[in-house]
Amino acid sequence: PTVVAHLHCINNPSTALCSHNYECAPTYQRNKSNAIARIRAIQSLQGDVDAYESPEGRDELSEIKNDKGQTTMKKTFLAALAAVTLAITSLSAHAQKDPTVGGATMYPTKTIVENAANSPIHKTLVAAVKAAGLVDTLNSPGPFTVFAPTDDAFAKLPAGTVEMLIKPENKDTLVKVLTYHVVAGKVSAKQLEGMIKKGGGKATLKTVQGEDLIATTSGGKIMLTDAKGGMATVITADVFQSNGVIHVIDTVLMPN
């Protein structure tokens, strides 16, 4: 009744008193904005009230509310699913172990020289890199792709070869041999296989030393042929470093 009375008085603002004995005209003048806001709020609810009073309207109103609830639930579910997927991906990434070479962990945050120095099967290579003065070069940003011969690979050379190469007077020759194992850029095994396929079964790699290496595949492994016809097999691929990648090989490559 109060609402009805005040609606009447708003439509007749000159009326001093309404049938309900309210001083409606003065009240309307003093509280015009508040009265209208309250009335409109009540009127906005009237639609839901009217709908709920009839079975048809009640069902329709319920369906609308259910649709809203389902939409909200769907959005909540999708958000939760995305969060779970992200968490699983993150855990999987952490679960992946860093590669090992000779049983030693190779860290992708370290440089080629730093990781090689920790490898128990690359002691000869590290000693040769130091003797050749290439430590700073292979510690630089690069990136470089290094085909790294193991200690067993160096042991296959004729007796006395390594001892001769690391002598100060043979430094230039040592530099040539070592840089013949280095290619500018970061070339993964997958990229190398793609190059071989594109090249009809072989890929030519220009080394930092200047001469070429020929890459092929055999029995699912990448093979490298040097300038003298010697062949090396990649026995551990894709050991990624902060400044490139190492592919471990079983034979020392020799330039002309």
Protein architecture, described:
- With 256 residues, the chain is an alpha+beta fold.
- It has helices at residues 2-11, 24-30, 32-53, 55-95, 112-118, 123-131, 135-139, 151-155, 161-165, 171-179, 189-198, and strands at 100-101, 104-105, 144-149, 182-184, 203-206, 212-218, 221-225, 231-241, 244-249.
- Strands 4-3-9-8-7-6-5 form a seven-stranded mixed beta sheet. The chain has a two-stranded antiparallel sheet with strand order 1-2.
- α3 (32-53) crosses α4 (55-95).
- The chain is elongated.
- It starts with a helix and ends in a 7-residue tail after the last strand.
- Mean pLDDT is 77; it is low at 1-8, 13-17, 19-23 and 89-96.
Q: Can you lay out the helices and strands and say which pair or pack?
A:
Elements: H1 2-11, H2 24-30, H3 32-53, H4 55-95, E1 100-101, E2 104-105, H5 112-118, H6 123-131, H7 135-139, E3 144-149, H8 151-155, H9 161-165, H10 171-179, E4 182-184, H11 189-198, E5 203-206, E6 212-218, E7 221-225, E8 231-241, E9 244-249
Helix pairs in contact: 3-4
Q: Quickly count the helices.
A: 11
Main beta sheet, described?
A: 7 strands, mixed
Tell me the structural class: alpha+beta
| Poorly predicted tracts of residues | 1-8, 13-17, 19-23, 89-96
Shape: elongated
Strand order of the largest sheet: 4-3-9-8-7-6-5
Output the helix-strand order. Answer: HHHHEEHHHEHHHEHEEEEE
Distance between the termini: 108 Å
Strand runs, count: 9
* Beta-strand percentage range: 15-25%
Q: Which value, in Å, is the CA radius of gyration? A: 40 Å
Kindly state the mean pLDDT as a whole number? 77
Helix fraction, binned, reads 40-55%
